Amino acid sequence: MLSLTCKTAIKAVIYLASKQESGVRTGIIEIAEYIGASEHTVGKLLQTLVKRRVINSVKGPSGGFFISEKQLNQPIMDIVAAIDGDDVFKECGLGLSKCSSAHPCPIHNEYKTARDLIENLFAQNKIADLYKPVRCGLAYLIG
After folding, report:
1. Confidence at residue 123, expressed as pLDDT on a 0 to 100 scale
2. Would you state the torsion angle of the CA atoms of residues 130, 83, 55, 47, taken in this order, to the nearest 10 degrees?
3. Distance CA 24, CA 82 (A)
């Protein structure tokens, strides 16, 4: 359902959020190493997220990426919308272009139920809800 790129973006934002209290600005290399992603991919994702105001950046020798207290209260859905778009939770499970209740694919009803649950998960959970267990060592961003 979510692209690998979107999953990487969510992990990067959670990592930035875990650094928020210390006020540290974080570089692309550090984020990429921590979440096990390529620097190139992480760099492009972070720039997209800055443009969509999900996170912030400052250029220069003491620059880097960071997230504000206010941004911590954004739903995870904001990250998903910035990277995968708003239609990710409307797509057919089999990729059919004309799948609907009136013209369903073979898995339409079950997939719609699962898709709606996941959409609700991302809409209800805020960035702050996901970084706290990581910061406390109760959850992990790497395998």
Report:
1. 96
2. 140
3. 24
